[in-house]
Write a structure and sequence with these properties.
By secondary structure, this protein is of the alpha/beta class. About 30% of the residues lie in helices and about 25% in strands. The chain has helices spanning about 1-10, 25-45, 45-60, 185-190, 190-195, 215-230, 265-280, 310-320, 325-330, 385-395, 415-420, 445-460, and strands spanning about 65, 75-80, 85-90, 100-105, 110-125, 125-135, 145-155, 160-165, 205, 240-245, 250-255, 260, 285-295, 335, 340, 365, 400, 425-430, 435, 440-445. Strand 16, helix 10 (about 385-395) and strand 17 (about 400) form a beta-alpha-beta unit. Helix 7 (about 265-280) packs across helix 12 (about 445-460). It is globular. Bound molecules: manganese (II) ion (2 copies).
Length: about 475
């Protein structure tokens, strides 16, 4: 009887919490890794800043810009920046590119509030910036939280001025106000999605009038301050990209410090894993490629998104360096689309199908498919691809779990996976489960972050 039970038990898939499957040394490596990750988060709150930080880390690890037409040798470490908003990095392997490359791909744009081209106005002696939100946000989450402004203003003379309001300890912050509960009776009757209309997401930027001015004295005072600090005028804001992002740093969450809370962890948590793993690999068999791209949150569109040919051009240049056809390289390549998934939240249990949801501390979440309404817009990786990843992760003691993003027909989401698969590259989604995804403050488990790093390293080192 007991022997029969044991046999049956061996047939059951019942993984345990990751913390009971790793030893103290592994926990310590996890903690160390997450310290570096938190620094990466604080250094980059926009895709432009993430690219700068990624390049700085890569150059310290011996990477250099790829020169078109050069010949490359095994062990070479190169990168290319696409318009300051995306970066492709490669470690050249011992095998030729006709045998394919191992790709870890993540996105570095996050939901936020962009300033409109003509943002600045004054109303009732208060100065505001108009915003146009970027990506999927829940608008009610962005009021009454401290904000910073990060971005650039491109001038007519060709110069680009970097703008950072916030960041430093003594720097001022900005905010969008909310209605006080005392007067919120009517607002509270509205559905959550309608209570804060997009056109009320106006950022408060000043209240002090410029002395001697009769018209719009508060607005003009803000213009004077912007000119003093950045040398820009109102018209320069037309060719600017200024993003309002939350004004707090990454921090440990929980009495046990087992989690991290921060803005923009979708998808910088996977971007850091994909990058750090590439910086840490030694000599690889197949060429290892890390891509960190922009515009995923609005459909991977545009010249800096995954649908752009910029990646194909980078790969064509790598292939030319070894006399390989790019399409042959793609055919044999393999990609982990490293993007976050939803973690099961017991407080909103009705939105999840528990058996197939990712859970904190069970490791990197593998998504065979994403999409909505019957897998629409999903690349739906093949069974063989999932098996290959199971094999690869188990061989490297990487904790992993399968993940679906919530209940069927409750919503859905996408990643860059379909655009990699469209290129004839076998691709599987793999990433960190997140609580409060897309909120100004998202939470992840440290162990899942570290396991995603280990998964990316296993990918680059796969034979
Ligand atoms: Mn994402
Ligand atoms: Mn997202």
């Amino acid at each position: 009887m007991s022997e029969h039970k044991t046999k049956a038990e061996a047939l059951v898939y019942a993984p345990e919490n990751g913390h009971s499957r790793v030893n103290a040394a592994e926990e310590e490596r996890c903690t160390q890794y997450c310290e570096g990750y938190k620094q990466f988060l604080d250094a980059g709150k926009t895709e432009r800043e993430c690219v700068q930080e990624a390049v700085a880390l890569a150059e310290r690890a011996g990477f250099r810009p790829l020169v078109r037409g050069e010949t490359l040798a095994s062990g070479d470490k190169v990168y290319r920046v696409n318009r300051g908003k995306a970066v492709f990095l490669a470690v050249i392997g011992e095998k030729g590119l006709e045998e394919g490359v191992q790709i870890g791909g993540a996105h570095i744009d996050s939901p936020r509030l962009d300033l409109k081209p003509l943002p600045l106005y004054e109303d009732s002696e208060l100065a505001y910036f108009k915003t146009h939100y970027y990506g999927g946000i829940r608008k009610y989450q962005w009021v009454a939280v401290p904000l910073e402004l990060h971005g650039v203003a491109a001038l007519k003379n060709g110069e680009t001025v970097e703008v950072r309001i916030g960041c430093g300890k003594d720097e001022p912050r900005l905010v969008i106000e909310d209605l006080l509960p005392h007067l919120g009776a009517e607002q509270s009757k509205k559905p959550l999605g309608e209570a804060i209309p997009a056109e009320t997401l106006n950022i408060l930027v000043g209240s002090q009038p410029l002395q001697g001015e009769e018209k719009d004295a508060v607005k003009r005072n803000v213009l004077v301050l912007l000119h003093e600090k950045y040398g820009i005028c109102e018209e320069d804001l037309i060719s600017a990209e200024l993003c309002a992002v939350p004004a707090y740093e990454a921090m440990d969450i929980g009495l046990d410090r087992s989690m991290i809370g921060a803005y923009g962890q979708d998808d910088r948590v996977c971007a850091y894993a994909a990058l750090r793993a590439l910086l840490d690999v030694g000599q690889v068999q197949k060429t290892a490629v890390c891509l960190l791209v922009d515009k995923e949150e609005i459909g991977s569109v545009g010249v800096s998104g995954m649908q752009s040919a910029a990646f194909d051009t980078f790969m064509a240049d790598l292939c030319a360096a070894s006399g390989t056809r790019r399409d042959v390289c793609y055919e044999h390549s393999f990609c982990l689309s490293a993007d976050v998934t939803a973690a099961y939240d017991p407080n909103f249990a009705e939105a999840y199908e528990k058996r197939n949801s990712a859970r904190f501390n069970y490791g990197v979440g593998l998504c065979k498919y994403t999409g909505a309404r019957g897998k629409s817009e999903a690349s739906d990786a093949s069974a063989e691809v999932v098996a290959r990843v199971r094999r690869m992760l188990d061989a490297n003691s990487v904790l992993w779990q399968m993940a679906e993003l919530g209940k069927v027909d409750y919503g859905g989401g996408g990643t860059i996976a379909q655009y990699m698969a469209n290129r004839n590259i076998d691709t599987l989604d793999a990433g960190v489960p997140v609580l409060s995804m897309h909120a100004p403050f998202e939470t992840v488990s440290k162990l899942d972050c570290y396991m995603t790093y280990k998964a990316m390293k296993a990918l680059y080192e796969e034979m």
